[in-house]
Amino acid sequence: MLRFLLNVLWFVLGGFVMGLGWWLAGLVAAVTIVGIPWARACFVIGNFSFWPFGYEAVSRRELTGRMDFGTGPLGLVGNVIWFLLAGWWLAIGHLSAAVACFVTIVGIPFGLQHIKLALIALAPIGLQVVPVRR
After folding, report:
1. pTM (2 decimals)?
2. Structural contact between residues 51 and 11, judged by C-beta atoms closer than 8 angstroms
3. Membrane-crossing residues (predicted)?
4. What is the pLDDT of residue 24?
């Protein structure tokens, strides 16, 4: 119940805007055709950005125990290209939102989520969103 309440508050107080930012980046990437791998990552992380409480982003290599395109050398190159073209913009958006959340005591959990998402924004290729393990 607490996760649901936190997700609703998150969505209303800024998560919706950041999720749309991720989706916009995904649409721009998809239009270029060569950006489709980045577009897929944007839509996955965008959905995570809408409802982050109760989920985490983990490396697919750690999750599956094997490498794939996103977790190998091509994924590294993809993340470098992503960082240069769009990653730092999304990270700045999340960091700005985190600072605004940290101004209030109530906003601290939201600020922490924004910091997690800012780190993900820097290199999203090779990550998979999964429910939090207990």
Report:
1. 0.84
2. yes
3. 7-32, 38-58, 79-108
4. 93
21-67 pLDDT tens trace: 899 989 999 999 888 888 988 999 999 999 999 999 998 888 888 88
d(CA 95, CA 18): 11
26/63 Cα distance (integer angstroms): 24
10 Å Cβ neighbour count for 28?
15
Let me know: does 60 contact 71? Beta carbons within 8 Å: yes
pLDDT of residue 36: 87
| Contact call for residues 15 and 112 (beta carbons, < 8 A) | no
Tokens 């995904």 identify what position? 26
User: pLDDT confidence of 86, banded at 50, 70, 90?
Assistant: confident
According to DSSP, residue 128 is labeled E
d(CA 41, CA 98): 22
- The answer to whether the beta carbons of residues 130 and 63 sit under 8 Å apart is yes
